[in-house]
Amino acid sequence: MDGGAGTRDVQERLDTVEAELEEVDLQIAVLQQKKAELHRRRDALLQRLEEACDAAQPSSSSQASRGEPAASRQEMQRFDGSDFPWSQEVVQHLQDTFHLPRFRPLQLRAINLTLSGRDVFLVMPTGRGKSLCYQLPALCSKGLTLVVTPLVSLMEDQLMYLQSISVSAAMLNASSSKEHAKSVMAGMTDPTVPFRLVYVTPEKIAKSKLLMSRLEKAYKAELLSRIAVDEVHCCSQWGHDFRPDYKLLGILKRQFPKVPLIGLTATATSTILKDCEKILSVRQPVTITASFNRTNLYYEVRVKNCDSDASVEDMASLIKSKYQHQSGIVYVFSQKDAESVSSALQKRGILASPYHANMDPTDKSHVHRRWSTNKIQVFSSSLGTVYVMGFFDVHVNVVTPPITTG
Length: 406
Hints:
This protein is α/β, with parallel strands linked by helices. It folds into three domains: about 1-55; about 55-290, Rossmann fold; about 310-400, P-loop containing nucleotide triphosphate hydrolases (Rossmann fold, 3-Layer(aba) Sandwich). It has 15 helices and twelve strands. An eight-stranded mixed sheet has the order 1-8-2-7-6-3-5-4, with helices on both faces. A four-stranded parallel sheet has the order 10-11-9-12, with helices on both faces. Strand 6 (about 225-230), helix 10 (about 250-255) and strand 7 (about 260-265) form a beta-alpha-beta unit. Helix 4 (about 105-115) packs across helix 5 (about 130-140) and helix 6 (about 150-165) crosses helix 14. The longest helix has about 55 residues, at about 5-55. It is globular, with a radius of gyration of 26 Å. It starts with a helix and ends in a 6-residue tail after the last strand.
């Protein structure tokens, strides 16, 4: 074959490939643009679906369950409005402090009710913004908001978030130093309100006479604006997470009857809420129940490789291909599995860490903070440990079931 002819043939074929690549690049650009548009349309439709589901499942008053007249739909809809004395401040904090463009369904209703001095039970799925319903009112009130929460990890999550948006908050638990506890308790009666929110465990309420004394002084000085009871279903023996110390929280409403209480849960049934109402000494609370249609969640079932190494390899490939730079959780059956899986993922270039009950509390907090700030992409943990951690992270995009299942 002539050398010149051969070169021309190769050049022609190269030109053809280059032209095809340009065409493919153009098609990719068009598809990416279409994908972005479809994402926008999907998000808008999900928002409409979420709002429609909530509208179809309006809030109800627990008075009706006792034969008393329930709050009417018209009365409840009034609390969806923005014609209250605090409405302008509420919107300002929503946008400037919490950096949110709008409220999710039923959030504004709960906020207006608690700012009106009503006792509220809020039943809303995890991730739908229950915490905002007491955090934002705390900034629109004169004094502090006392938040009772069952787990230190829940407190740490909330404090990390509030600190990131420059909201003053503090927590008290069994591991708090004497100096820290003294500082927080002094702040509770300070007219300048150095802490807008103070997080405590139910055990602290039950066992600390000094804390109750400080709360009494704050109440008399009108510096105790609100009581929020997170995971309120823990009050009831019928609840799946019953905590004995929660049964002692009725002292709060008995000693501070003029302070509105808001109880929050993602799981309580009407029977459990009736029980909570009695235990907390709350009379005629308004119950707000949001839709449990989780439009942002989907499930995918994948065939698991029987070989454990191959299974971890598949998991690592999935994380790298679909969830790069996103947070995730890998469920395992034991602490040993948590250690081995995180180690295997680390060897495959993924920032992973174990999280289990036998870890030192300081190490657990360190993992928690690194994961919450995306310095760790994935943590592996047993089902039981994760269920009681209460991690709050709006960036979690992948949850992998136990990998040791057959």
